[in-house]
Hints:
Pfam families: AAT. The protein has 11 helices and 15 strands. It has helices at residues 35-45, 47-56, 60-68, 71-87, 89-101, 106-113, 115-125, 209-216, 222-229, 288-298, 305-312; strands at residues 8-10, 15-16, 27-31, 137-142, 146-155, 162-168, 174-180, 189-192, 238-244, 249-256, 260-265, 271-273, 329-338, 343-347, 361-366. Strands 2-15-14-13-5-4-12 form a 7-stranded antiparallel sheet, with helices on one face. Strands 1-8-7-6-3 form a 5-stranded mixed sheet, covered by helices on one side. It has a 3-stranded antiparallel sheet with strand order 9-10-11, with helices on one face. The longest helix is centred in the N-terminal third of the chain and has 17 residues, at 71-87. Mean pLDDT is 87; it is low at 1-19 and 126-131.
Amino acid sequence: MLQSICFSSFAIKSAISAMHSTDWLPSINVDASDPYHMGWQIGQRFKGLIKSRMSKDPFLYSQLLPYAATHDGQQLVDALSASNKNLYPRYWSELQGIADGSYTSLLEVLLLNFRKEIMPFITCRTKNEVYDAEECSDVAICSSLAALGHNEDANVSVQDHIFLVHASLSSEASFTAFTLAGELPSCAFGFNSYVPPLPDEVVAGGIGRNFVSRDLLESTCLEVALQCVQLKNLAVGHSYNIFDICSRKIVNVETASRGRFSVKEIGATPFFHANMYRHLDISQVQDESSLHRHARAADLPKFTKDEILSLLGDTEDELYPIYMQGPVLHTLCTIWVDVDARKLTIYSGRPSSIERERSALVFDLTAQ
């Protein structure tokens, strides 16, 4: 099973319009030139959401913290901390700022950000425990229509613990990131103004996917974005959807530990992706949810905006729907990216609904 497939990151050569905010998705503007202060501002602004999410997280206090107190757990957390702090010292300072600004412990913040890298070792020890990884769905096409649709799904405890971060960089560039409370921007999706897995597929103490995702937000072009995600010492696998509006390209990158990766450029054939590897040859769990969603997507048309949004809002499969409404997993929002129109839209409700535009947030991705 592909770990953290829900992440969709967008490396875009564009200028970002004024920051958007709404009741269901609050936002903050920060200066990213001082990493610690940036994290502290985020922690201060959203300390209520961060503490609330921690209190409702089904794994933090019941599994992650108890495991971190064991000898094996402490060694794993120390190894993850050392490798990620060494490679990404600026983002490590951001995490420290988030913890200090929200008046939470650094360990709790670390465990939220490293949960995908730690949970496989806990579930390996306790076979009767079930780890509910996030489940996301993507559709991409690049023909007469160049577009990407994405359902951002997560454990139901994450619902109402989300916000947007708009960060200004010292180079007069900026990025916008959909952020889960307590985590680095952004393990979900974002765009910038530059242009449970098998245990033997996890490397203990490797680079965490939240740090890679944060680094991706500062990539300056498609080539740099690809370099960001193709690391040799990744801890777990990941899937990235990356697009560049200037070159009119959309790619899906599947990565795995030990330097394995595969890049697929999207063409005229619609490409659907759930939580399993599609083009990287790797052993994986046959995830029932992913299999069901792939089967349902294969039966539905996906060549136009309405068809793709209808697919992402589909609930026909009662056990494993594409659009999730609990009790364990919930679709937080749906993203629609029109590369040619240079617009990104976030829908808070079911994207197949005729009412979808009423609560939508629209970002203009105007080329420089």
